[in-house]
Amino acid sequence: MIHGRQLTKSYGDFVAVAGVDFHVERGEAFGILGPNGAGKSTTMRMLGATLKRTAGDLSILGRDPSTDGPVIRAYLGVVPQDDNLDTELTVAENLYTYGRYFGLPRAHLRARIDELLDFAQLTDKRDAKVEALSGGMKRRLTIARGLVNEPSILLLDEPTTGLDPQARHLLWDRLFRLKETGVTLVVTTHYMDEAEQLCDRLVVMDRGRIVAEGTPLDLIREHSSREVVEVRFGSDRNAEVATQLDGIGERHEVLPDRILVYSEAGEDDLQAIVARGFMPVTSLVRRASLEDVFLRLTGRSLADE
Amino acid sequence: MSATTAHASSRRRFGALYVAEYRLRNMWKWRNSIVAFGIGNPVLFLASIGLGVGVLVDTASGGVDGVPYLVFLAPALLAAAAIQGGMDEVTFPTLAGFIWQRMFFAMRATSLTGGQIAVGVLLAAAVRVAFTTVAYWVVLWLFGAVDGASAVSLIVVSTFAGLCWAALMLAVAANATSDGDFLSVTWRLIIMPMFLFSGTFYPLSSLPIFLQWIGWISPLWHATQLGRWLSYGMPLPAWQIALSVAYLLAMGVVGLLLARRRFERRLTA
Q1: B119 in contact with A at a CB cutoff of 8 Å?
Q2: Which among A119, A189, A179, A186 has a CA at the least distance from the CA of A148?
Q3: Given A48, A86, A105, which is nearest B101 (Cβ)?
Q4: Contacts of A101 in chain B (CB under 8 A)
Q5: Does the pLDDT value for residue A231 go beyond 80?
Q6: Which pLDDT tens digit goes with each residue over A61-106?
Q7: DSSP result, A42-106
């Protein structure tokens, strides 16, 4: 569906995307994971055929976006990071006008809008002004809008950023259903749990480059231990305690607020720490996540902002 | 994929019409104020300046150009209304599309091109300008400022001028990065001087020569000259007629070409 080779975008001296290679297969959910400023949104706009690449090759549905942009966009659904809905129009009118931009016939759209409102669980908001919607509703409407042309590929840029947990789970559920119908999903996110929930396969981006690629499970297996012990001794003691934990776990990482001990048997290692006379203020044994992978690969944590 | 999906190239070709359709639906929401303004504006102008100032001028000097002041003024007001209407309907949507609500960026994610968006905004503005001009003409006619014989030609020339100016302003507005600067500069430095120094209220020749150049470059002056020639037969040499038409047309063509290019670039940057 999508093939990128040495894909590059630079603005003057600033290189936003520095030669990335990737491919997306039909029907899969492909994730682009990374912190803010990693080049995810820039990559996404190139995939959406609305931003011209500086160098490299890009093929979307077998076509080159720099020459066939309008044709490619007819097959794409785009859910941008900011909702950019038309706030002067109602929910249904937003879907209608967007469908008309594709030149879809009016009668066809009327039926399609009913389906989309049902899918987005917005049927009872049909005639509400967009301004009156909650953040989660706006995002579901933006997704419904992106589906109006029955796209082969849906591009979602940070789909759940700024939503509360309940709204996020509702959205994930909708995206699962879409995937079941055979729509290819490309998702950028800086949330690890989102990537683990949604993506069959993902690339980790940092500073415009791809630093790892694989399924969430493979990445965790390859770049992290099975479990992680998180211990906190207070911010002034963490570094000092860390120097005396040699031999416990596979390795450890000191963050300003806590120490992470990578471990195959978390509970045992936690007891070993206590046995050395260090009593943590709080402790937690958890399964390793993509967060740990990212920390390992970049040496930095994936802070929210 | 069914036959109704968005992929047929025949559909993509008419992108500008879909944009115009959206703009007209949006204008329809403002129909009451568009109609009220379209009729109220000429009534106020004609009552205050046309009749008020007109009585003064007509009793003092027997009119202007050999006709009553109201008849002299009417073609200029008609052209000014068309130019103003065209300006409104390209600048505000363009600022909204690029800066306020950024809906052009949403449109750009569909199969539309930047150039089609520009042309669509202009097409919808053309409909609004034609409506405003017709409404204005009817009010002028009720006041006895124009006669029925010149109706079509006068309306066509004014609409044409409004549209050519709108094309240029579309290109200018597409370059605006700050709405405040754009609006204050265009209104204070372009619209007001154009309205005051284009031979609207008195013949351009009564201005000192060092101010007359404002009229010569003003689309309003060219449209007014053509309008006066059509409305009451103001003498106008053929070369001036040709020059005014060519000047307005050039403004429209250059404006549209620049606007299309600017829309395309701004939406792919």
Answers
A1: no
A2: A119
A3: A86
A4: 15, 18-19, 22, 107, 110-112
A5: yes
A6: 999 999 999 999 999 999 998 878 988 889 999 999 999 999 999 9
A7: HHHHHHTTSS--SEEEEEETTB-HHHHHHHHHHTEEEE-SS----TTSBHHHHHHHHHHHTT--H
- Which residues 6+ apart lie within 8 Å of A50 measured at CB? A69, A73, A78, B108, B109, B267, B268
Distance, in angstroms, between A102 CA and closest chain B CA? 5
A46 and chain B: CB distance < 8 Å anywhere?
A: no
Instruction: Please determine, for residue A41, whether its predicted confidence score (pLDDT) is greater than 80.
Output: yes
Interface of A with B in 96-135 (CB under 8 A): 97-98, 100-105, 108
ipTM value:
0.83
CA distance B43 to B117: 35
CA B220 to chain centroid, in Å, comes to: 9
Contact B128, B33 (CB under 8 A): no
Q: Minimal CA–CA distance to A139: which of A155, A159, A123, A158?
A: A159
Q: What is the pLDDT of residue B3?
A: 43
Binning pLDDT at 50, 70 and 90, where does residue B116 land?
very high
Q: DSSP secondary-structure letter at A129? A: B
Fill in the amino acid letter for B21. Answer: E
